[in-house]
Amino acid sequence: MTEAYSFAYLDESTKRMIRRTLLKALAVPGYQVPFASREMPMPYGWGTGGVQVTAACLVPEDVLKVIDQGADDTTNAVSIRRFFQRTAGVAVTEHTTEASLIQTRHRIPEAPLKEGQILIYQVPIPEPLRFLEPRESETRKMHALEEYGLMHVKLYEDIARHGAIATSYGYPVKVEGRYVMDPSPIPKFDNPKLSGNPAIQLFGAGRESRIHALPPYTRVVNLDFEDHPFEPTKADAACDLCGATTSYLDEVIMDDAGGRMFCCSDTDFCATRRAAGHAGRLAPGGEAA
Question: Which EC class is the enzyme in (predicted)?
Fold first, then answer.
């Protein structure tokens, strides 16, 4: 750790303020709690909210994992991981099962989380009603009065136009029968992992100065209709590297002729399967397993 920095970069009074906000958010699951977001040494949109929440939660004994769209090796993940290595000196890992604190951008790890782990989401827009009602004063009233008819109308319009609910990410959920929440732009495939999760889930939006949270084992229900129930979706393929058929997949264009491959979005999950002997279509000598 570099001595010129406070532990995890933020000063102690700021971290105490964020921790108080987190306690309020955990006490009222799904409710957006305002906080005094600080300037961070990165542009807005690169995870400033998640970084501030991580900084407030980190202790020297923590093991940190950072993922971006499920991957450990992208620019955003590597930069944030190195940032905390430099300012906090904490241990880091690429294995979900080894991490005590996981900061994520737009994915929930494939490996089941456990009690004692904390999952921190980078959130660009925390307000689920923003694109239906742009006035913040009105959306606050709608949450207070539990008036979510506008969201159901939006989902119904999807059905009328496309024959199905077309929202593929940031799919709205209702938390403990009360607040409608935006789960950040995770794919709808990940939504079932929100409910009953034994880990603490924290959502930080730096630009919007909002934090919301899900305590362990919180009941989270996806908005839908009886005749059009919620369906998690993914590419109808197996991972070409490890052969997994149940994980969320990225599609990669291989050449100018349109050749393509599918691989697990979660790089740790894929690497763990390959280390265990599973092989996909494009693995050396492999077939889907």
Answer: lyase
Closest of 256, 249, 122 to residue 182, by C-alpha = 122
Query: Partners of 187 in the beta sheet?
Result: 169
User: Alpha-carbon distance 198 to 191, whole Å?
Assistant: 15
pLDDT in tens, 241-259: 999 999 999 999 998 988 9
Q: What amino acid positions are annotated as catalytic residues?
A: 30, 239, 242, 264, 270
Residue 45 structure tokens: 């949109």
CA atoms lying within 13 Å on the CB side of residue 173: 30
Q: What is the pLDDT of residues 98-147, one digit of tens each?
A: 999 999 999 999 999 999 999 999 999 999 999 999 999 999 999 999 99
CA dist 83 → 48, 87, 144, 160 (Å): 12, 6, 38, 47
CA dihedral 66, 72, 76, 79 (to 10 degrees): 70
Tell me the C-alpha distance between 70 and 56, whole Å. 23
| Domains in the chain with CATH codes | 12-127+173-222 (3.40.50.11310), 234-282 (no CATH)
Report the side by side order of strands in the sheet with 220-222: 179-181, 173-175, 220-222
Determine contact, residues 104/121, Cβ cutoff 8 Å.
Answer: yes
Helix (H, G, I), strand (E, B) or coil at 76: helix
Q: Which residues pair with residue 212 across a beta bridge?
A: 203
Angle between helical axes of 12-27 and 48-57 (0-180°, round to 10):
100
